[in-house]
Amino acid sequence: MGAGTTVRFALLVVLLLAAGGAMMLPVVKSLHRTDAMGCTLATGIDPDRGGDMASVLNALRQAVAYRGCMAKYAPPPAQWLIYGWPVLLSVAATLLFVLLPFWKARHRRAVPLESVDPDGDIRALLTDMAATAGLARLPRVVVDRASVATGAVVFGRNRRPTVCLFGGLLACRRSDPERFRAVLLHEFAHIANRDITVTYGTVAVWRVFLALVLLPYLVWVSRQVHGFLTWWGEPTDLPSLTRGLLLPALTAALVYLARSDVLRSREVYADLAAVRWGADPHKWDVTPRTPADGRLRSALGSLRELWGTHPRWEERRGALADPAPLFGAHALPMFLTGAAAAMVNIHLLTYLSTYNQYSLWRVQLVSLAPAALVAGVIGTALWRSVAYAVLTGDRIPSGARAGLWLGAGFGAGGLFTGYGISGAQWLPQRPAVLLLIVCAGVAFAWWVTQCARLWAGTWRGRSLRPPLLIGLGSAMLVLSAWFAWWTMDGASWAAGASYNSGGMRQGVLNAFPGSGGAGASDATAADGSVVVSALAAAWPILGGFVASPLIPAAIAALWVVPLAAWALGLAPGAPRWVTNALPGGGGQKATAGEPLPPLRRALRPGALGGGACWLAVVVAQALLPAPPSGPQQLIGVHEAHYLASLFVALVVPAGVAAAVAAARSGRGRRLVAALIAAESAALLGLGGMVLLVSSDGCVGPLNTLESSCSWRPVWDTMSWTLPRLVNGVLTLAAIIALLAAAAVSLVRRVRPRQTRPTIDAAGEERTRSGGRAADGRRLGLRLGTAMVVVAAVAVAVVEPVSLARFHTMVPDAATTQRTARQWSHVTVETVSADTRARQVHAWHRLGGRYLLEHAKADDDYLRAVLRSAVDTKNVRLPYLARLQPICADYGRIAGWVNGAYFRVPDREAQAAWQALGLSAQKGSVDCERALKQQDITMFVSAMRELLAAGTSTAKVMTRVEVVLKEAGYETYLRSTQKARKPGW
User: Among residues 810, 845, 880, which one ends one of the domains?
Assistant: First the structure.
């Protein structure tokens, strides 16, 4: 199965490469003078709260102006500077890796073996030991004659290793040949285990990272600290500054601790291999270290051992006597893996967010990298612990404790990097949401362990590697879906995202156009108000389930993978992989313990739950009133009510099925049984719902949306809401199954029931029935299993394909702004008068002044032309046609005012600014239309609108000047008045 240490090295390398560009981004930005703070202030964001969810939503609601301002005044560095940094690190690390063996040999002043072995006796002895270790040829051997140590070291790479013998070891070749042999076999074990490349590759990447990333980053941070302590520091800057200081230190500690932990385990594996080849383990013994006196010294000693690359001799002797520690999921590796994976995910997302390249599929693909690494590390460790427990007859661990440390690592990694946390905050606005991360780690480890337990008991192959790869692949899918959901939704909730009930209600009404339209009766709207409010509360959650492209595949993997193992059934006798691992009949020990219950304990509740879903959908259709008349009402509140009824009708029976299956299954299968029952019930219910909704109108009492009988596929009639319904039902069913399994496990732990003698599944079938009836039931069970599996795979494939356009879309600024204004609601922040003046000042100098002066010049020219027309009594349209450029220019100004430029960060000025935009837009359109149609009445109305726009312009200018004068910006105002250009 492998030890999983190579994947842990890969995780560290990916962390360093991903952090290269992400940590260098602020360093590169600091080399250019930008005005990002001005754009932030002009948006109306309080810099002391910049980064919280209210500020983010405020920027998204003005995305066109904000992105335009940042592109002009604070452009990001060229993409090659950031994306090329991991490439630079890789190239530099490769060069260092190639040169490292020569440097180490030169540093030790090592000489070739031939210079101290003229007769070839030592080479012959080493060749014999290399053959014993299974090496095809003797590696390059050098000698460090100056060293008096009786050891050796191996370096280089797997295909071209170099073994360096210390002078003291050569001296004891004749006096203590067994020690000489034990030391050399240990080093040859490192070569046979292929430890060298990844070990020194990680060393090379780490040293290059220190020189090319950490050093310039620390210089940049030191400048920030100096500025904070001398002249520009604010108390609200302390959290972000502290986090910036801690990030390199924590990254270094995480990498070094994880690398040391892996190297210690590899030393033990090398010991085991050497002993297997005949090495005497007593020759490695050294005088044990005297234990430290006192608790403090003992704690410091234990902490120092965590940083060491070699385990204590006591631990090595213990591992040789009992290798159980090598097969456990220990706390430190779990925590470090979770923290590293979270940091990798966040660093990779920085590459997308810096250049506004977010799309749902890109976020999903980014999440695959840390998910694959965590699945490889944690999944392998949990599978190994299960396999070892099966082989030794020990109690199989649940995986919950390992998952707890994994989830804690996920949360710690996010806090280290500050993702979803304002620069002025130590913790996110809703720190309780971080408990979801810990729960996700526990659920993931619990599920992986139960899958491994099922496959270990039913797999008939010679090796567990095939089911291990299947399990790791499914674990990667599940974890990548979680990372993507947390990135898009979970982190936002933790940061304080909330949706105004009125705004979300209006969003639901927009989704069902007739619900609030003119065609809906007051009675219908009143009856559906509660339902619409409930949908408004659930709508953001359901939208998050649709946003992740791999959620359907992850949900399918959650229950199809353990279902496939369970469907295999127990093999007669010991599985072949057990026999291979424990030859000589030792595999009989693995058959002890609780047997595998029959699969129908999970599928029968699922089938009954699916039937209950059908019945619940029928009842919901029967209880709902007949469809109201009129096409608008047809898709209005009535459809919203129907959608909510379908959710309840499908989710509740699936949850009951999960609870029943969890209660009827054994301790080590409650979660997977609950998942199988809940998801099969939900899938069967969705199938029935599709048939009933598509044939709506054909059965009188069940007519809900239609009054005439015809086949209307549900994917046509509910095209926009169907993905939310399907993904929402399947995801909620999985969550309910997890909660049900946890609740049943907790109850059974508190009040354990009396165990009954059980027999294996095949024996139970033979006892209850025999012959053809039993064969028929087994055939029906297999056919049912195949049907639900095919349905699950079909949903996992069809859903992402049908939403491919939605998932691959990279929203532009206009789309982002429109969506944010439609679905979110942001109240005006209460800020100090000084901050408000800074915001107004930034708004004015970055473009507001130009627009106001432009509108003032248009108004002056318009009034002058109209006054001239009245004075000369020449009010005919041919004469007034000279105002056509002014009308067109007012249209352009209206475009800037109505969304292309920032709102005024002052309530009174914003009211006049909004009136300016509305009047200018209507007046411009009416003016050009009147001149084109030669309509004097419309032209007069247009002039009134444009004159009102000029009045609003004056109000905005007056209010802005008042705010700036009160804050002491007289010098700035005088300079703008001198630089003001004349009008038309």
Answer: 810
What three-state secondary structure class fits 156? strand
Strand spans (E) along 238-279 = none
pLDDT in tens, 117-162: 888 888 999 999 999 998 888 999 999 888 888 888 998 888 889 9
Provide the token pair at 598: 């029959």
Residues 784 and 862 both lie in one domain:
no
**In the predicted model, what is the mean pLDDT of residues 240-266?**
85
Whole-number Cα distances in Å, 801 to 361, 554, 721, 808, 882: 12, 15, 16, 11, 56
What does the CA dihedral 172, 174, 178, 184 come to, rounded to 10 degrees?
Answer: 60
Please tell me the distance from the alpha carbon of residue 323 to that of residue 317, in angstroms, as a whole number.
Answer: 10
**What's the structural domain count of the chain?**
4
For 110-115, the CB contacts below 8 A with 24+ separation are 110/142, 110/143, 110/144, 110/164, 111/142, 111/143, 111/145, 112/141, 112/142, 112/143, 113/141, 113/142, 113/143, 113/165, 115/143
One domain, residues 702 and 610 = yes
Both 702 and 846 in a single domain? no
More confident residue, 513 or 297: 297
- Cα angle, residue 619 at apex, residues 618 and 620 outer, rounded to 5°: 90
Report CA torsion sign: 93, 97, 98, 102.
Answer: positive
Q: Which helix (H) or strand (E) holds 944?
A: helix 936-966
Sheet holding 160-166, edge to edge: 111-112, 140-144, 160-166, 152-157
In a domain, 525, yes or no: no
Residue 235, domain member (yes or no): no
Burial class (CB in 10 A: 0-12, 13-18, 19+), 310: middle
Calpha distance 141→150 (Å, rounded)? 16
> Beta 140-144 vs 111-112: how paired, if at all?
antiparallel
| Domain match, 734 and 801 both | yes
Separation between Cα atoms, residue 939 and residue 834, nearest integer Å: 44
pLDDT reported for residue 409: 93
Which of 896, 880, 852 lies closest to 939, judged by CA?
A: 880
Domain span at residue 390 reads 328-498
Q: Tell me the pTM.
A: 0.85
Domain stops at, among 153, 175, 194: 194
- Domain CATH number, residue 121: 3.30.2010.10
| Whole-angstrom distance, CA of residue 690 vs CA of residue 237 | 55
Q: Which amino acid is at 439?
A: C
Please state, as a whole number, how many other Cβ atoms lie within 10 Å of the Cβ of residue 824. 22
Which phi and psi angles does 810 have, rounded to 5°? -100, 100
